[in-house]
Amino acid sequence: MALWICQTCGIQHAESAEPPARCVICEDSRQYVGWDGQRWTTLEELRASLSADVRDDHGLLGIGCSPSFAIGQRALVVDGVLWDCVPLLDGMAEAAGDLRTIAISHPHYYTTFVDWSHAFDGIPVYVHADDRKWVVRPDSCVEYWEGEELDLGGGLTLLRLGGHFAGGQVLHAGDKLLVGDIVQVVMDRCWVSFMYSYPNLIPLPAATVRRMVEKLEPYEFDRVYGAWWGRVIAEDGKERVRASAERYVDALRSSPSQ
Question: Which of 26, 87, 142, 197 has the fewest CB atoms lying closer than 10 Å?
Fold first, then answer.
């Protein structure tokens, strides 16, 4: 029996003797099956090929894998909360310190969150109830929450923005907003974007983007942390998100120039 990990999305599935016939997360229109077909690995195999990449990213502890694996996101640690997740624990769990909980923006970053929880004495993993069906390795550590916001204590609040996934959530932490790619920090790091699917380039409707930004309006934040190393808006983050939404909506309703 093994806990198989999809090589394309990095999600660990429930224990089985043989690799699953399919990865429902990759077969969803937001993701894709790898060009070489559905391929699987295990945490044991990843330990032989990956190493810990732990470093500061604009003032927060970042945790990633080297070389990059699957979607290539890095996790962040803020005030005892692991935000998002990466598959490898070796050398990373120690660096993370005393975690009290885990929160994950959306299903593409679930990866080995059950192993992470168990490594820290079964700490809760907060997933919005709207994304329950995407949890392919069920475990008692998963806390499905409902509604639009959840107080994690210590000045940290989970906000359900939806968009990319129905239960897509971001973490408000003082002057910081940790967004995964529910709100995507783009390459010039002065703007963000919003998509239903990033690899397949499926946009979100204008009304959805407006609603996402309206949900952020009551919260002040200066710095916005995306899903990958260095994808950080270092200042004036709230206004940059607001302006980006306006630019996005304008692009959807405007005709291309000739």
Answer: 197
